[in-house]
Amino acid sequence: MISIIVPNFNKSIYIIDTLLSIDNQDFINWECIIIDDNSTDNSVSLINNFIKSKSKFNLIVNDKNYGASYCRNLGTKNSNGNYIMFLDSDDIISSNCFSNRFYQLSTNQELDFAVFPMGTFYELVGDNINKWDNFKGNHLKRFLSHDLPWGICSVLWKKQSLNQLGGFNEDFMRLQDVELHTKAILNSYSYNCFSFNNPDCFYRINNNRIKDFLQHCLNDINGKISYIDYFNNIVSGNFSIKNLRGTYFECYCFAFNLYQINKISKSNLLIILSKINRTNFNNIFNIYSNVIIKFYSFLRLNRIYFRGMDKFFKYIYLL
């Protein structure tokens, strides 16, 4: 059986589309566990109305807001399946998602988890051609440097393996799946990326939900810094420590890109840069990396930008 875990918080606009895509599977042996994280909109009434005659769906409502990691762990704990998939409450899966994934993982019993391509969309599946299907390169390096090879709904887990790993770290407010996948690779979990498959899950791009871009940026940077701090204390060797610089560099990229498109003011940008610069990861940096970041910052502060600039500077920053 596949158990699909769907955490929800105030996604009443999208949650029914998500549940419809789950209910439309051509695979029979599955269950869906929805964890509502104390929503303040009408999510719960909508979900209850949708699932009232559907025995494969189960709703758990939290008495307060605990966060997505807690919800996913709670869903796993209450699941009956041998395999676990996580889906956000505004994303969509294709009708062959479960059958496709079950076949690949059940016929490769040595694997702890399997990774599949993921598409993206805005309003309707098919309205955006971008997809996550580039699984090339060293995956540990890519996660540590925030060149993320896959997302949370790309993965089907063996439940036993997920439990042995300890599930999601509930202290992480951001990069929760990035932490989980990094941890799995560091612990030498066995996995395969089935890049030849068409996308069977679709990530919704929804920038309209962001009301305060300054706070959004600060939260994002807090998440990245927490990730660096956590794995800086775990990993060893120049390879891993050096690649954590990539996640640090992405803090600057994210802030400068919001500034470039006028989502934050220069005064807000300076507040953000001050926060980034106050971090203390002395074993990660050297004189060379500090020079690179200062030059990059000088150019971006003066709105000097060219196509591929972030990728270029990140590359030389990691040398």
What can you see in these coordinates?
The chain has 319 residues and is an alpha/beta fold. It has two domains: 2-204, Spore Coat Polysaccharide Biosynthesis Protein SpsA, Chain A (Alpha-Beta Complex); 210-317, no CATH class. 44% of the residues lie in helices and 14% in strands. The chain contains twelve helices and eleven strands. The strands form two sheets. Strands 3-2-1-4-9-6-10 form a seven-stranded mixed sheet. The protein has a four-stranded mixed sheet with strand order 5-11-7-8. Strand 1 (2-8), helix 1 (15-23) and strand 2 form a beta-alpha-beta unit. Helix 8 (213-232) runs parallel beside helix 10 (266-277) and helix 9 packs antiparallel against helix 10. The longest helix is centred in the C-terminal third of the chain and has 23 residues, at 238-260. The protein is globular and about 60 Å long.
Layout: helices, strands, pairs:
Layout: E1 2-8, H1 15-23, E2 30-36, H2 43-51, E3 57-61, H3 68-77, E4 83-86, E5 92-93, H4 97-106, E6 113-115, E7 118-121, E8 131-132, H5 139-144, E9 155-158, H6 159-165, H7 176-186, E10 191-193, E11 201-204, H8 213-232, H9 238-260, H10 266-277, H11 287-301, H12 309-317
Parallel strand pairs: 1-2, 1-4, 2-3, 6-10, 7-11
Antiparallel strand pairs: 4-9, 5-11, 6-9, 7-8
